[in-house]
Write a structure and sequence with these properties.
- Helices cover 45% and strands 15% of the residues.
- With 743 residues, it is of the alpha+beta class.
- It folds into four domains: 9-43, no CATH class; 45-232, no CATH class; 239-448, no CATH class; 458-682, no CATH class.
- The strands form five sheets. Strands 1-2-3-4-5-6 form a six-stranded antiparallel β-sheet. The chain has a five-stranded antiparallel β-sheet with strand order 11-12-13-17-16.
- A hairpin with a 3-residue loop joins strand 4 and strand 5.
- The longest helix is centred in the C-terminal third of the chain and has 22 residues, at 486-507.
């Protein structure tokens, strides 16, 4: 019985073996079990093929070119010319007019298929940089075993008709894996601005072949377009950087010729930096030898093939950098090495969530966000180190980065108390990759539409911000009308505060902080800044512009009282505490006065140290609980969470505790608000003498005993206006009502 079972198992294995090799067995050009040279053919690598000399008479296009093929791609064509020795493309003519070019993908790109054998596609592009059509010539991809036919490939390639080459391709693929050179490559989207990519449907169950076809089509067509001086886009990176220059290099040789920059950080360096700010290093670094290696940080530009292919390999370079991106995109690589770093940070994505990686060029600082980052699981570089986390950073031309100028990469390290130190490394693209000079005017032109691009990409955030701003503006414009109905106004007030704190704050992360104000001030004094740089998120930009404009009309009131998520959260807590009967505590006037000055001193220190010592400024920034409570939703270091909770709990007994005494942003807006041009809060002659009814309802104590409202302390809650219009509670109105009744 056992022998019979063994025989059945062997039969099954034999059937499976024959089944999965059936197509190759009957393929004339494909590898078979009987061919002695199969192993040699399977070892073909694009990296090696690209560096080989190509003979014109051996080109595949010579075997396939004829007028029928030409007309299937260029219906208006009448004839074609000889193969161009430089571009390896065939010029296409309509009578005597050159209308485009036709090339074969293997000739131009040396791309291989999933089978590790060449595939052959005919691609046509016109002189406007438009793909006219793509035709399948020949392939040996193993698709029959997957239930696919040549017709599936033909239908897939029909989607490449009339595609603009400046736009990258985003393949809609099933999340499958493919064994390529021993690695499992998962098909995933890239990062950055992907909304402008052209959408193409891949072939299910043959996702790798779909992707490789796409790479060869786009890479080859763009290469020829640049050689023929076809302007794909005024910001086309290929006009300024040699994207094709390539030679095989190891990891260390890339470091030696400065293609790849490395920053080594010892534990002692981190400890010393924390000592300088009189704080402790993270616990995981306190109990290891000081001369131990904390981490090595690596950074480079990935768009040039000479760098990108050597780090990622041809397949991943094509997928994530070459064909899958718009021509104006710049892609960078960042990686961390070291077990101590891994134990502390775990992954780069965790560092990015804390906004602790910054790219700086001149005076522009870009805080890396998750939508700009693509994490990579494997290090494909030859003789590469033991990378513990790596990924790609994507920037389109709207970020106005000059590929010829140096970059500074800033890495922030937090300790257990939430205090921060910084490390930085400088990177410059080697001059061997330079082409023509990068024109600053081109950068300026791209900036005109960058805001619109950002808004389109973040429609929900932009629309939500605009609606919120309009609603709050209407309330201020018609404040006297709304404040006459106490109950209605109370409901509106609570609903808006809940909307701002929960949706705008927790969900969309729309919290302006003192860092935004400092960056704005620094850009004014130091120059080179741009609102786009630090108002890159629609909510921050729109709320920021609204706040600046409103300072001249209502002071700090609109932002602090209505648009600040943390402020809204504080007031909701105070409102709930009053409903629960918790007694509110009011400090004595003298103590209250001195406490209010604290926020102005904090603002002064932050501004001073932001210019002379950033590490100390970073410590002072942590006074703000906004990042912990709103941006990170309390997923932060324990001491930062405790601090944020303490401030919120304080609101149970002292309304708007943080706003009153500690908020440096509120202090700055209060000072700037002194330039306001109108007085929108109505007062009577009786206010302050003898009436003090408004003083008692003001949640921040911004009304003096004299009845004067200190606008630098006013949050614009309009409670005083509700009292002002209340015929039953406002003493002057009550007295007037009694007088009318007597008459």
């Amino acid at each position: 019985m056992f022998g019979h079972l063994s025989k059945q198992i062997l039969n099954i294995l034999l059937v499976l073996l024959l089944f999965f090799n059936l197509e190759n067995l009957f393929s004339k050009d494909g590898p078979t079990l009987l061919q002695n040279k199969t192993k040699k053919k399977e070892k073909l690598r694009e990296e090696e093929l690209v560096t080989k000399d190509i003979k014109i008479n051996e080109l595949m296009i010579n075997k396939f070119i004829n007028i029928d093929l030409v007309k299937s791609i260029f219906p208006e064509a009448t004839n074609y010319g000889e193969v161009d020795k430089n571009s390896l493309a065939v010029p296409i003519y309509k009578n005597d007019e050159e209308i485009g070019y036709l090339f074969e993908t293997f000739d131009v790109t040396r791309g291989l298929g999933y089978s590790r054998r060449p595939f052959h596609l005919a691609v046509g592009l016109d002189k406007n940089g438009i793909l006219r059509n793509v035709k399948l010539l020949k392939h040996v991809e193993p698709i029959a075993i997957l239930g696919r036919t040549d017709q599936d490939f033909i239908e897939y390639l029909k989607q490449y008709k009339d595609i603009d080459l400046k736009s990258g391709i985003s393949l809609t693929l099933e999340l499958t894996g493919a064994d390529i050179d021993g690695d499992s490559v998962a098909m995933r989207e890239t990062a950055g601005d992907i909304d402008t990519l052209t959408q193409i449907d891949g072939i299910s169950r043959t996702t790798t072949s779909s992707l490789l076809f796409m790479d060869a089509i786009m890479r080859g067509a763009r290469k020829i377009a640049r050689q023929k001086n076809i302007l794909l886009d005024e910001n086309d990176l290929g006009n300024f950087v040699d994207l094709e220059l390539y030679k095989p290099q190891t990891w260390n040789s890339l470091i030696e010729d400065k293609s790849l920059e490395k920053l080594s950080i010892k534990v002692l360096e981190a400890q010393d930096k924390f000592d300088e700010i009189k704080s402790n290093a993270p616990r995981s670094l306190r109990f290891v030898k000081s001369d131990s290696e904390f981490t090595n940080i690596y950074f480079t530009a990935m768009s040039p093939a000479g760098i990108g292919i050597n780090i990622l390999g041809r397949r991943w370079f094509d997928q994530y950098i070459s064909a899958g991106r718009n021509v104006d995109d710049q892609v960078f690589y960042i990686a961390f090495e070291g077990d101590l770093w891994r134990k502390l940070e775990n992954r780069i994505s965790n560092v990015i969530q804390k906004k602790n990686i910054i790219i700086k060029q001149n005076n522009k600082e870009i805080y890396i966000t998750e939508d700009l980052f693509k994490e990579l699981p494997f290090n494909h570089a030859k003789k590469g180190p033991n990378i513990v986390s790596q990924g790609l950073l994507y920037f389109s031309s709207k970020y106005r980065l000059n590929p010829h100028q140096p970059f500074e990469i800033i890495y922030k390290l937090n300790n257990d108390d939430g205090q921060t130190i910084t490390f930085s490394l400088n990177y410059s693209l080697p001059k061997k990759y330079y082409l023509k000079s990068f024109d600053k005017k081109i950068i300026k032109n791209s900036n005109n539409i960058s805001l619109l691009d950002i808004f389109i990409k973040n429609k929900l955030a932009a629309i939500s911000s605009i609606i919120t701003i309009l609603v709050v503006s209407v309330i201020f414009l018609f404040s006297q009308t709304f404040s006459k109905n106490k109950n209605l106004f109370s409901v509106i007030r609570v609903l808006i505060l809940a909307w701002v704190s929960i949706f705008i704050g927790f969900y969309l992360g729309g919290q302006i902080s003192i860092i935004h104000l400092v960056n704005l001030i620094k850009s004014i004094f130091l120059g080179g800044g741009s609102l786009i740089t630090f108002f890159i998120e629609p909510i921050i930009f729109l709320f920021g512009i609204t706040t600046i404009i409103s300072l001249f009309f209502v002071g700090r009131a609109m932002f602090c009282g209505w648009l600040c998520p943390f402020g809204a959260l504080q007031e909701l807590i105070s409102t709930a505490s009053k409903k629960l009967g918790i007694k509110q505590y009011i400090l004595k006037d003298k103590i209250d006065f001195y406490f209010r000055q604290v926020k102005y001193f904090l603002l002064a220190f932050i501004l001073i140290f932001s210019f002379i010592e950033l590490n100390i400024a970073n410590i002072l920034y942590s006074i703000e609980p906004f990042k912990t409570a709103i941006t990170l939703r309390f997923i932060a270091p324990s001491k930062a969470v405790v601090w944020a909770l303490f401030l919120l709990i304080s609101c149970l007994i002292v309304e708007r505790f943080f706003c009153r005494y500690l908020c440096p942003l509120g202090a700055g807006l209060g000072i700037l608000g002194k330039f306001r041009q109108i007085s929108f809060l109505k007062r009577r002659n009786e206010c302050g003498n003898p009436c003090i009814a408004c003083n008692k309802v003001c949640p921040t104590g911004a009304i003096k005993p004299s009845g004067e409202i200190v606008m630098s302390e006013c949050l614009g809650c309009l409670d005083c206006q509700v009292m002002y219009n209340d015929n039953k509670k406002c003493p002057p109105l009550v007295a007037l009502s009694k007088l009318k009744a007597q008459n």
